[in-house]
Amino acid sequence: MNKIEKEKMQRVIEQMKEDNIKFIRLQFVDINGSVKNIVIPFKESDMEDLFVEGMLFDGSSIEGFVGINESDLVLKPDINTYSRLSWRPEESAVCRFICDVWTPEHEPFVGDPRSVLKKSLAKLAKKGLQYNIGPEPEFFIVDIDEEGYPLPYDEAGYFDVEPLDKGPDFRRELTLNLEELDFEVEASHHEVAPGQNEIAFKFKEALKTADAVITFKQAIKAIVDNMATFDQMDYRVTFMPKPFFGVNGSGMHCHQSVFKGDKNLFSDPNSENGLSKDAIYFMGGLLAHAPAITAITNPIVNSYKRLVPGYEAPVYRAYGLKNRSALIRVPAARGKATRIEYRAPDPACNPYLAFAVMLEAGVDGIVNKIDPGDPTEINIYQLSEEEREAMGIKVLPSSLWEAYHALEEDPLILNALGSHVSEKFLELKYKEWDEYRVQVFGYEQKKYLDI
């Protein structure tokens, strides 16, 4: 540890003492993006060893990691991710560090999703470039009925206010807690579907943003659970993409741009639409690799209940200026705020893997000058199949089965994930699809019982 690193470590330790920290959560995610952690007591004398050597743990029980015969892995805290958990009581304050997973041989573990993203970003950084991304994870607040089924917390719609919208207290409390976690909250509001909400936060460099998405989901679940306990109600938050039939599902639209220093490479004030060639080609790469990307950005069976026409979810592989019926939308902002919005992802995805594959696809578009064609400015939902075919507009996979087969056939996206992650991910998806396809649901029983 060099002098600068030691000074940073000492500043963090002093902050931990000032925050009255009693316990430390060493946090990471599995291949699905589920948060895992181990909790240790705060002892100042142990901190340098923790930051330098990390902490050994058994990786064989973590989804997508290693077998029992090679179980030892190491958690190495990223000192830049220190945060006191605002929803924990001050008298026994808890902080967390997001960790990278390493091998005992002091090498990044190839199955660590965070390392997958860091690898893609490092390649970009060698060219002096930075990938910025701003996600919009939507979520439902639900109540649980006596039989254990979820119900929307309210019957409000888009931008509604009280008394229809019953979420202002939740969103206010969530916003205050998120700001204590260093989020720059830009807006919060009720979304289109009953019980559906959104809290938008400012974009940052992709690794910080992926960390933020994980923290966001964890914090919101914990805070709402605490509020529900206080109110003696069974409220909870779900990031399930489509919890209810017949209404909009939850997406995680991702606004993306690439910068060189303080210059936005997607901006060209001299072009007709204000977009640079790099922006156009980046979209071309995303559209070309979209079927395989969908396996990562929409990773569960339920994801494809959202990706259907008619509920503002994108299913058509096209881009448009302001057009929300296309997979990629270009918001009106220009100059440094120029960005593209990839609209397919949902909040069930692992953000580290999702950001990595979108970046690799976009860069492939720039390198190989993949032309996405002209923008589509009409409502694609209203086109017939023949009209879409005539315009060359293809569709995204309509099931997890289609998506993972598309992933199998896309070497660029497989390479972005690495052989370990891609193999483990596909194994999990084969199993998930097999479990799903043999189930018998209430819909089938009602429809076919008298056949």
UniProtKB/TrEMBL annotation:
EC class (word): ligase
Transmembrane portions of the chain: none
Residues that hold Mg(2+) according to the record: 136, 138, 191, 198, 253, 341
GO annotations of cellular component type: cytoplasm; membrane
SMART domains the record matches: Gln-synt_C
InterPro entries: Gln_synt_N, Gln_synt_N_sf, Gln_synth/guanido_kin_cat_dom, Gln_synth_cat_dom, Gln_synth_gly_rich_site, Gln_synth_I, Gln_synth_N_conserv_site
Cofactor comment text: Binds 2 Mg(2+) ions per subunit.
Alphabetically ordered keywords of this record: ATP-binding, Cytoplasm, Ligase, Magnesium, Metal-binding, Nucleotide-binding, Phosphoprotein
Name assigned to this protein: Glutamine synthetase
Classification via Gene3D superfamilies: Glutamine synthetase, N-terminal domain, Glutamine synthetase/guanido kinase, catalytic domain
PROSITE patterns: GLNA_1, GLNA_ATP, GS_BETA_GRASP, GS_CATALYTIC
Top-rank taxon, per record: Archaea
Keyword Ligase (UniProt): yes
Enzyme Commission number(s) of this protein: 6.3.1.2
Catalytic activity field: L-glutamate + NH4(+) + ATP = L-glutamine + ADP + phosphate + H(+)
O-AMP-tyrosine PTM sites in chain numbering: 381
Binding site for ATP: 186, 201-203, 255-257, 324, 336
Binding positions for L-glutamate per the UniProt entry: 248-249, 306, 312, 324, 343
GO biological process: glutamine biosynthetic process
